[in-house]
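Protocol step 4 of 6: structure prediction from sequence.
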Amino acid sequence: MKGAILVGVGTLALMAALTTGCSTGNGGNNLAARDTTVEYYRVFDIKTEAPADTVAKAASNGINRNVKDAQVATPAGVQVTELPGHFKIADPTAAAPGTAVDKGPSCDGASWTAKAAPKVHGSDNMNLVACLFPYKNGYHLDMYAVFTKPEGGWLAWPRRVGGMVLGTPEKFTESTMMDLVRAIREGTGANVTLVEAKPNLAGTPWLEPGRSASAQASTAAPATPAAATAAPGTPPTR
C-alpha cells in the first residue's frame, strides 16, 4: 500500500513538473493562446522566348492546381521594360480616411496577376498574390502570401496532430507557389532561377516534377466567371 502511494505521489509530481515546464518555457507563455502572422515572399527569374499568352496560360494553370476561383487578370498594353518590375506593398497611412486598404501588394506593370483568399485548415485571413513582370530577358514572378494562425493554448497539440493529417498552412503556401513556378517552367521550357525568398527556400524544389492536380482550397470571395475563366487578354508585344 505504501509503495502504491509513493508511486501515485511520484506520478503527480512528474505531471506537475511537466506542466510547470510547459508553462514556463520560452518566457512562461507556451500555454497562452495567441495569433501569429506568417508571411511568405518568393521572386523567380524566368527566362523564356515563349509567347506572352503561353506564359500567362501556364501561370493560370499553375495557380489552379491548388486554388480554385483565383482572380486572374492579364492587363492589356503592358510595356516590356529593360529591367523587371516589382510589386509594391500597400501603405496603410497613404489611404484616405474611411477608405479600405488593399490586402497584399499591388501588381502595377504586370502582364499577368492572380489574387486569392483561400480558406486553408489551420489559418485565418490568408491572402495570396502573384505577379508576372515582363522585361527584355523574360519575366520576374513575384509571389506573396500572408496569413494568421493560432498557436499555444490547450489546443496546441490537437492542432499539431491535425496539421499532420490535414496539412499545415505553411505547406499549402509553399506547394501553391512551387506548383505555379513548375507549371510555367514545364509549359514554356523556361530557365527558372530563384532571386529572393522569405523564409529561406532549401534546394531547388521548383525543378522537381509538378503535380497535374491536387486538393484545391476554396477562396473566401469567389471570382466572377469572367475573371476566373476569361481567356488571356492582349499580350504585351515581345
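Step 5 (inspection) to follow. Strands lie at 34-47, 71-73, 112-116, 124-135, 138-151, 191-198.
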